[in-house]
Amino acid sequence: MFTPVSFHIGGAEVLLRISPGEFTTAGGEVFADTGPWLADPIAGVARGALAVALDDVTGYAIAAGVPADRWPVSLGIRVDFLADPSTCPGRLSVTGEVVGRDSRGGTTRGAVTDDDGEVLAIAVQRSHLIQSTGLSAAVAAGSLVDADAPIRSQLGLVDAEDAPAGAVALAMPATPLAANGMGNVHGGMLIAVSELAAMSAIDARCEYRTTSIDIAYVRPCDAAAPTTFTAEPQHVGRSLAVVRVVAANPSGKPSSIATVILQRR
Length: 265
Prior knowledge:
By secondary structure, the protein is mainly beta. 14% of the residues lie in helices and 42% in strands.
């Protein structure tokens, strides 16, 4: 018996205006609205925010074909960004398909397309199956106080004072707007904030765009606790920057480790 797929609207989906389409064991589709919340004072445009819908569509595509007592958890996602999403009102189609699956997990790929049919981003996700614990009924989706504000401010991101030498750290307070249905920080949101931390680390001043983010998820990140994103530039050249970003709860143990590639415009 396969798991019936019921799309959960958590805080991350509320923040990024994501709504479900249909899913089969082969793949599916979700939709995301665009607007001024995708603008960012340092990154220019928050391309990484597209990862929330990409994580959803590629994750639920695997979930649609697993046994009822199992649930997929992401091991890692790579997203390549081709163009900026609009910061004006619009609607994005985000599609996902299963590349392969076995008894241990699966691999899926996804794409984001805008109203004009332009591909904005593509992704590959690797998942493994765990015993299903279900969604947490205690996790509220949250609500938007300033709906048009950049996601940086809606998430309450601030510079952390205790960053290591040569690094910049962004602190995110506990917030339901970053959470998935299990009460953890959404995997796509870890990508989105890793991008913003990387941009802050090189003082991008809207002069760079993210070309790719490759992230590994090493342990759950509790959305009910603060999260710190520590960004360390590995290379900053005339046209290209490479930044390593580690997200961690107060224990200091990494939840995700991302490599963010930035290119000067």
